[in-house]
Give the backbone structure.
Amino acid sequence: MHIASTSLLRPVAGSSLLMGYSGESYMRLPGHHGKALLLGRHTKILVLCFEECGTLVEEATRRFLFTTGLPDIPTAREGVERMVQALVEAEALEASEHEDEMFGTSMAEAYERYRQIPEIVSKIIVASVPIRASSRILDVATGTGELARQLAHISAYVTGLDISKSFLRVAVQKSNILTNRPSFLMHSGNHLSYLRRRFDVVCLAQAFHWLDPVQFIRGALNVLSREGMLVCVESKVYLPSGHPLRELFGYGKELDDGMNQAFLAQEERYSVWFEAFASRYHDSLYLSHTWYAKEERSYSAEFARAFFPPQLVADVLERHSYKNLEAVFDGFKPEQLQGFCLWQVLFFRRLSYSRK
């Protein structure tokens, strides 16, 4: 496979990062009978530069050089190119298809109905920050505004931000009945540096993988007040063996290696970026504390429509000779579609210090 700067790559589907007892890092690869690829420090950082949704090699290279502090010169870029090529040959990275329009109206409506953030998450945020009526809150990548609406029950100053017109349209419609209506802004989470407002709390729920880490962190520090807090919400789903989404889409296997491994890898992703930012700009965020919550729910055909891009669904149906999603779930009893989601809420305090 020829790798160009414009190639769109991602960690191979079904892979996972693991940590050894002595602190070494491994990448478990699917289809290799439990084979795990030992990763050096730089190789691990490079893998983390590629998101599950796909990242351009040029962008990943820029992230890698920034994070490691290596100079952006031709010889350094050639070294990164060789590392990327080696990861592709080891089947640790693969090509990713990009869909320009995956967030249409039908998906936004399905998302609102079947992918809601449970209230326990907002209650954790309210109690831990804590959130008050005067708290200025920015919900980045707000989607249909579920978390923004929940926080608006406490704060009168909530702003939701997203790049999708379809999702924001649903967010506004659902907020019309609230006394404290969140305001919504069509804006990218990568461009917070252009906002001229300050917030006490910035929330980012299940969207860090969609953003450019460098641009987001720089922007978050731009809009956060001096004592502000960044709240990052992540989730991991477990589906039992035989569940159609697990068997056909490979979804719901994230906790097979245990909850600690799954969430430690997520914390590692954040820490790599925040530490790199602190060493270069002397202004960053540190992990203050973490909360967890468990949600049991049904993972049905409706959830699949809300979660997976339409083109991916169409490809899977064609590959397995199914007429539609209903055919995939035909014959399954409601209790057989149950699974659970573990929610992780990470609280990062702003940390600023002067140069020596």
Residues 243 and 336 are 7 Å apart (CA to CA). The chain has two domains: 8-95, 105-352. The domain at 105-352 is CATH 3.40.50.150 (Rossmann fold).
